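FIELD: query
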Amino acid sequence: MDGGSESGLTGWLIDGAAAAVAGGAAGWCAFVLVSPVAGALAGVAVLAVTLLGLRAIKPEPRRHKLRMFTPATWDEAVIGGPDMLELMEPEVLELTELEPLLLDDAIEPPSSDSRVVQLFARQPLPTAGELKARIDAHLERQPRRPVPPDGGEVVPLPVDASAALRAAIADLRRSLG
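FIELD: result
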């Protein structure tokens, strides 16, 4: 429950809230199904039984005892402080010189048919016409979709909607300006 004492205030509050939820649910069910008096009795009875049951559960004993320590002040934690040698690990103390970090792992370039997004690609981005040609070639390889079973109609969309986009942006600029 609260990890420390078995009868702490936090443990009682958590157990009491859980028991209140269970008692309220039981009381509401009895109120709706039987009568208001039965609802009140059922709610109080379930609240008491649940609270006693939850308080009977004891936490597991601690497996690891923590040593008592005093936290270091900011002045002591600054590198070169008087107690810094006691706070650092032995492996860190052995490293006295800073060595340069060499990144010599070569990254293989992705293949030409890779679907990985190349953020820093050396080749220029394709033009709109090249993209359209690639998309059209891809769509020609794909089988056509059948007509929907409800007899609906597939409406072809205009290929180039850039004029409508420019008009919408111009309208937005006019409304803001």
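FIELD: remark
Confidence is low (pLDDT under 50) at residues 1-5.
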